[in-house]
Design goal:
A hairpin with an 8-residue loop joins strand 13 and strand 14 (360-363). Helix 4 packs across helix 5 (67-80) and helix 10 (278-295) packs antiparallel against helix 11. It contains eleven helices and 14 strands. The radius of gyration is 19 Å and the shape is globular. The protein has helices at residues 14-24, 26-44, 48-54, 56-65, 67-80, 84-91, 93-97, 198-206, 211-220, 278-295, 300-308; strands spanning 7-12, 122-128, 131-140, 148-155, 160-166, 174-176, 180-186, 227-233, 238-243, 248-252, 256-259, 333-341, 346-351, 360-363. It is of the alpha+beta class.
Length: 364
Amino acid sequence: MIAEIPYIRVAGTHREVGRQIGEAARELVARGLAYYEENYPLLAGVTFAEALERTRPYLMAAERHVPQVVDQLRGLAEGSGLTLEQLFAWNCCEELTCLPERPDGSGVGGPGRCAGRPEHCTSFAFVVGGRVVAGHNEDWYPGDVDTLAVRHVTLSGGLGYISVGPAGYLPITGVTSSGFSSAANTLYSEDMQVGVPNNLLLTGVLECPDLDKALAHIARLPRARGSNHLLCDARGRILDVETTANHLATMDGGSRFVHTNHYLSAEMAPLEAYRSEGTPKRYARATELLAAGLAAGDDPVEVGKRVLRDHANAPLSICAHWNDEDPDQDQTITTASMVWEPADGRVHVAVGPPCEHEFVTYSL
């Protein structure tokens, strides 16, 4: 089944771009915010009102270090009729919900929010026969599926990108007119601090002219938490960047690279604070499927789609579904699936778990 989502094409300054998206997707933004206002007590262990207070210091850090991204969020608030503070607290969801696991169940954010964290994303990039392809399953909360939009952004000066995600979120993954794709995966460590939230850092990555500038952008900011950044450009260079708030390691992805939600580099592995059973299984399965599909000479884009639709090891599979047998309501599903072709500025998008919908193609 084909399921298309709203396509929003905007241009201008950061604030103008945000305002245009907010005006075009006002209903989607309101719906998304209502979901998180209702569910923050379950997902983060705090009410949304408490989240507003907790994230004020992060907003000050973001204003200082990425003012242009805050301006885009400010425009989004103006266009959607909400406040900057509401949208900022929503865009700090990862800082509030993705907390390190400790054996005694305690940790950052208070007891009871650290054990059994939900599964998150799977990403890959590869080069074969001169073609460059990257892919990503965005595994997040089910309320996001009904608020998705394709944002085709052209900033003043000409740089552009296409990013798929909830209309009230800043763009966090995508393909850019500079000829690269950017995927992000949640990582967990004890190293967290008041700093620039990951969503705002990721928007800035999409504005970089090349992978080296993207790496410099990630490295220079005082990060609130860690993340994985899988970057792939039109020339076939694959660069992976693992971070905590204060540490960073890079890996040359060679011709094929996979990442899920655990640290892979020798430097960062000792900082791991996630005991997921699913992340190593998804990593191994994606690696296996990519190797088999490419060895068989299959079309690279179709190989990518096949990986993202895979159900091996369910319910801990790459294509993630709601598990009715799990009593924990703090679960994630695949909210959107993307296969990028950075050399052509093209993205193939499936809504929700990609096994349920056909991919729709969008181009810069």
